[in-house]
Design a protein that fits this description.
- This protein is an alpha+beta fold.
- The protein has a domain of 50 residues: Multidrug-efflux Transporter Regulator, Chain: A, Domain 2 (Orthogonal Bundle), CATH 1.10.1660.10.
- 36% of the residues lie in helices and 13% in strands.
- Strands 1-3-2 form a three-stranded antiparallel beta sheet.
- A hairpin with a 2-residue loop joins strand 2 and strand 3.
- The longest helix has 9 residues.
- It is elongated.
- It starts with a strand and ends with a helix.
- The mean pLDDT is 79.
Length: 84
């Protein structure tokens, strides 16, 4: 069993170490914390080998609700509270 640190995994996958840490945090890449770094089994790289390259597409922004717009529109600011 060959163990790799996040830097080595990042080099093999062609991503940054932050991306490897994100895959670990998301549960997509099993790892063990050893000191300040993670160690990953070389055989576990197969689990993320078929991932889509790049960043996922952004979803379209959610439509604002009418109630949310009304609340913001009716809210008095601190400057308006004292004025008559």
């Amino acid at each position: 069993m060959n163990l790799l640190i996040t830097r080595e995994v990042a080099e093999r996958l062609g991503v940054t170490t932050k991306r490897v840490q994100a895959m670990i945090r998301d549960g997509r890449l099993p790892a063990e914390k050893l000191g300040r770094d993670y160690v990953i089994k070389e055989q576990d790289l197969k689990l993320v080998a078929d991932r889509k390259p790049g960043r996922p597409a952004k979803s379209p922004p959610a439509a604002k609700s009418a109630a949310g717009q009304t609340r913001r529109g009716n809210r008095a600011t601190s400057k308006q509270v004292g004025k008559k």
